[in-house]
Design brief:
The chain has about 230 residues and is α/β, with parallel strands linked by helices. Helices cover about 40% and strands about 10% of the residues. It folds into two domains: about 20-35 and about 105-229, Rossmann fold; about 40-100.
Length: about 230
């Protein structure tokens, strides 16, 4: 199953850009849904697991409703026990491993990475996905050299702790880090770690649900990153 990503022209500056974000030293990206267009394949893998375990299936026609939910709300809606989540996530990542090289970049992200890398002393990835998937995807698309580090946590929680770890590793203050992500949990992790967050609306969660988390910026297309960073 493939979820089509809309094609955008880069829009003009909006009211969200009244304040320009000063990128000091470190830019960190989420991976799934932010750089890699994994949503469609992720839904396919989830439905495979749901059929095997008796959970609620996701109908792509109802995806807009699910995009409003945070992780806790989504698991409750789908009937997935939290205690089973680590096992299912590990299984899903293994299945994704054989398919990751065939998945596309988010449209437009390739064009902005070189400029963002030039503006960043460090530019990396912090993801719940596994290192093998991330590395393979970046290598296939020829963008591995754009990133100075990759951090994988292998679970859905704990990003705030890893953002703080990144700060310690590179002797940074929280204010010198910006985290770019497409999910509610990304923005909450950034807030908890006291780093600035940029929400992107082309991934899992909706514009409205991301806006409720009050990120420093909320953007609709990758080229807008060049206006705010």
């Amino acid at each position: 199953m493939r979820i089509l990503t809309p094609t955008f022209l880069c829009a003009s500056r909006t009211e969200l850009f009244e304040e320009r974000l000063t990128l000091r030293r470190c830019l960190v990206f989420d991976f799934d849904g932010t750089i890699a267009d994994t949503l469609g394949e992720g839904l396919s893998i989830y439905n495979e697991l749901a059929e095997q375990n008796g959970y609620n299936l996701i109908n792509p026609e109802h995806l807009d409703e699910l995009r409003e939910l945070d992780t806790k709300g989504l698991l409750k809606h789908l009937g997935v026990p939290k205690r089973r989540l680590p096992f299912h996530l590990a299984t899903a990542m293994r299945r994704l491993r054989s398919r990751i090289e065939h998945l596309p970049l988010v449209e437009g992200i390739r064009d902005v990475l070189p400029s963002l890398r030039e503006r960043s002393e460090k530019m990396g990835i912090l993801s719940s996905n596994i290192p093998e998937n991330i590395e393979s995807f970046l290598e296939v698309h020829g963008i591995r050299d754009q990133f100075t580090f990759i951090r994988s946590i292998g679970k859905l929680s704990g990003k705030a702790r890893h953002l703080r770890s990144i700060a310690r590793t590179f002797s940074l203050s929280p204010g010198e880090i910006t985290y770019v992500g497409d999910e509610i949990r990304d923005l909450r992790a950034a807030r908890k770690a006291k780093v600035k967050a940029v929400g992107v609306t082309w991934g899992l969660n909706s514009r409205g649900s991301l806006s409720n988390e009050k990120p420093a910026f909320l953007i609709d297309q990758p080229c807008e990153l060049l206006k705010i960073l």
